[in-house]
Structures are given as C-alpha cells and as structure tokens.
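Support request, please re-run this one:
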Amino acid sequence: MSRATSASPPPAASPRARRLPPKVAFLLKASIALSFLAGSAAPTPLYALYQAQWGFSPTMLTVVFGIYALAVLLALLVAGRLSDHVGRRPVLIAAAAAQALTMVVFASAADVGDLLLARVLQGLSTGAAVAAVGAGLLDLDRTRGAVANAVAPMLGTALGGILAGSLVQYLPQPTHLVYAVMGTVFVLQGVAVLFVSETAERRPGALGSLRPQLSVPAPVLRPLLLVTPAIVASWAVAGFYGSLGPTLLRSLAGSASFLLGGLALFVLAGSGALAVLALQQRSAQWLLRIGTSVLPAGLVVVMAALALRSVALFLVGTAIAGAGFGTAFQGALRTLVGPLAPHQRAGVLSVLFIVSYLAMGVPAVVAGWRLAHGGEILAIAQAFDGVVLALALMALLGSFARREAVAA
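Re-run finished. Output below.
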C-alpha cells in the first residue's frame, strides 16, 4: 500500500531548530481535528441548563447550533484555501489560539447573546482549521490521512459530548470546567504546532485565496455530485443529534439527566468512528455502498423506536445509523481526495465540508423552528428521519452510478 510523502521539503530552519518526527506530527494533527470537533460538541449537553437559566426557546437553541455551522461555512469560503498558500502551520497556530479564546467566552457567558458570540468564534476558528489540518494529514500520508480525516471528527464529536455530559452531571462548575479543560488542550496543541515541519510549499496568491470561491478540479466534479447525497444524509443526521438529540432522548427516557444529553451523540459518532477504523482497508466504492445501505437501515430502527418509545431500541438504531454515517462519509472522502495534487487538497476539502456543514445546520434549524411552533418532538423526529431516509436511498443509487462510471 503506497503512501504519499510531503508535498515539498520543509522550509529551511536553523540547525538548532527541533522538529517533531513525521509520525508524531501526524498524531498531533489528528488530535487537533479531534479536539476541535470535541470542542464544538461540548456545549450540547449544556443546552438544557442554559435554557433553564436564561429561558430561551427551542428555536433559539437550534439557532445557537446552526449559527456555528454558518460560521464554519463562512470561514471555509474565505480561508479554506489559505493554507495552500501560506502553509499549514500558521493557519493551525492561529486557529488553536482562537479556539482557546473561545473557551474563555463560553466560560464567562452570561446570556444567550454571549453564547451566540462564542459559537460564532468557535465556528470561524474551526472552519479556518478544518481544511488546513485535513490537508496536512494528507500531506504526511495520503492513505492514513484519509482515514484520520473521517475518524477524528467523529471521535471528537463523540468524546466531546460524553465528556461534557459527565463533567456537568458529576462535577462542580458545570458551565466552566469543561471549557477550562478544552482551553488547556488548545493552548498545548498550538505550542506543539510550533515544532512541526511545514508540509505545504508556500505559493503566491494568499490574498486572492481569501476571495470566496467554490470550485473543484474537473476530475473531481462528477464524483462530488454523485457522493453529495451521501454527505448530506450523513451530516443531516449528525446535525439533528447535535441540536435536538438531547431533548429527544430525555423525552423518551423521561429523565432530565445531563449525561443523556451527550449519550445519543456519543453513540452516533462513536459507532461511526469504529466502523471507519474496522473497514479502512475496503475500497471507497464498497464503503459508499455499505454506508448508504446501513444508514437508512439504522434510521428505520430509530423510527420504530420512536413509535414504541423505546430508549434501548433508539440507541441500537442510532449505533447502526452511526456506522452507516461513518462508512458513507469515509467512502465519499476517499473518492474525492484520490486524484488530487497537494496544492488542491485544502480547496477541495473546503467544498466537501461546506456541503457537510450546510447539511448539518439547516435541517436542525428547521426542526427547531417547527418544535417552537407547536410541533411535537417525536413527530418532528419521525418526519426528519423520513426525509433523511429518502436522501440515503438516493445516495445508494448514486454509489452504483459511480461504480458504473468507473467501470466505463
């Protein structure tokens, strides 16, 4: 199995400068992807507590969630290709510093306006970093980098939700402690990046790259169109679980436990990460077909659980859907990054994550608006599952169309 090496030799450094070995640098970059997504999931179990303290509506709750996705989109549009020009290190150092500052804003939030500000800052720094760290992983090792790009965000989402839920449930200072922990992690990672060799050759046009642009190389356009339904279906499920999942699970369980707030998201993202790790040797097309078959199967089980009001069945269906989410997204990712040159990676990953975050944010806000205007949470969840089920079936058809195109 071949592995891609660095796109270019690292820039000249003083003889005394110490750089981390490539394997350690790879693990560091993977940990950054993990921690950034863990930070984005950390507020999820706290939403019920914020609602109780500040009295905002379910619509505002999903706005808090959705505005993060919109901020990520803005950052991807403006800064998604920046690391292809200035290098990965400067972007990652600045993003880690911004994330640490964001944790201070979260910890000192006094009303929903502060919470919105923190989510915007978090989204901007995540969006600026996600393409740079993803491209940096591919620079070091294309095969393992593709796996890490799929696993780290899911694993980070899973750990962020369950860690925050546990800290809130069992330790003091629930709205401060989790942010102190995450802020410390971001500071340490930012310092560590200083000792990582640059893997991207500096190229002119950095200012021009800040002009919003959605374009992909011609060989990637058709595959992108064919895998878009899989991306949309997968991330729409993640968005629903990240915004209204805690409310839904507590409603089913008849409990106000904060730990439950992170449990559904943990099961979804954790099973996705495990599926990617277990099946990483399979081809991209095989992953797409299996993922887009398993995802709707899991949603069918979830819909049955909602009808029966069964928490155990709901978690089983969530785990199945999560496995489909992970494998479908990994298949889509590997389909797209295969033909890319190093200087194209950050730009294409930006487009991929723009589609992902739109799919994650918009349906969640719509579901929250419906809940605030008299909708019943179980009925909304059933309708949402039905729409995503149709998208997943479209994605399955698209995977077979892609196979026929490759064969031709």
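Residues 377-407 form the longest helix (31 residues). Residues 22-197+217-407 form a domain with the Growth Hormone; Chain: A; fold (CATH 1.20.1250.20).
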